[in-house]
Amino acid sequence: MTISDGSIDDPVGTVIAVLLDGPTCLECVAAKAHVTLDGVAAAILEITKVLEVHSDRSRCGVCDEDALVFCVQKPTRVAASGDVA
Ligand SMILES: [Zn+2]
């Protein structure tokens, strides 16, 4: 998957990994991905171009606070090995 060319510092992949883990609030994504809140917001914007990002008012899987949380849906269109969701 090519989201953006270039730098290893690109937080997009890291943010995706955090969000795939479960619903996570912005602050926890920032903490886990080691980026600023602005960086997380920018990364989420990038991610929405390639994956479905869901945001909801719910309990954060990391800090357990009721907050606006984000999660991404794993692409299911191409099932490589008979994986039925
Ligand atoms: Zn949190």
Description:
- With 85 residues, this protein is an alpha+beta fold.
- The chain has a single domain (12-72), classed as Orthogonal Bundle (Arc Repressor Mutant, subunit A), CATH 1.10.10.10.
- It is built from 3 helices and 3 strands, in the order H-E-H-H-E-E.
- It has helices at 12-20, 26-33, 37-47; strands at 24-25, 53-59, 66-72.
- The longest helix has 11 residues, at 37-47.
- The site of zinc ion (ZN) has 9 residues, from strand 1 and helix 2.
- Zinc ion is lined by residues 24-25, 27-28, 60, 62-63, 65, 67.
Task: Assign the CATH class.
Answer: Mainly Alpha
CATH fold-type name = Arc Repressor Mutant, subunit A
Question: Averaged pLDDT, please?
Answer: 86
Distance between the termini: 21 Å
- Distinct compounds present: zinc ion
Total beta strand runs: 3
**Largest sheet composition:** 3 strands, antiparallel
Reading the helices and strands in chain order gives HEHHEE
Envelope shape: globular
Architecture blueprint of SSEs:
Layout: H1 12-20, E1 24-25, H2 26-33, H3 37-47, E2 53-59, E3 66-72
Antiparallel strand pairs: 1-3, 2-3
The structure holds zinc ion.
Can you give keywords for this protein?
85 residues, 3 strands, alpha+beta, globular
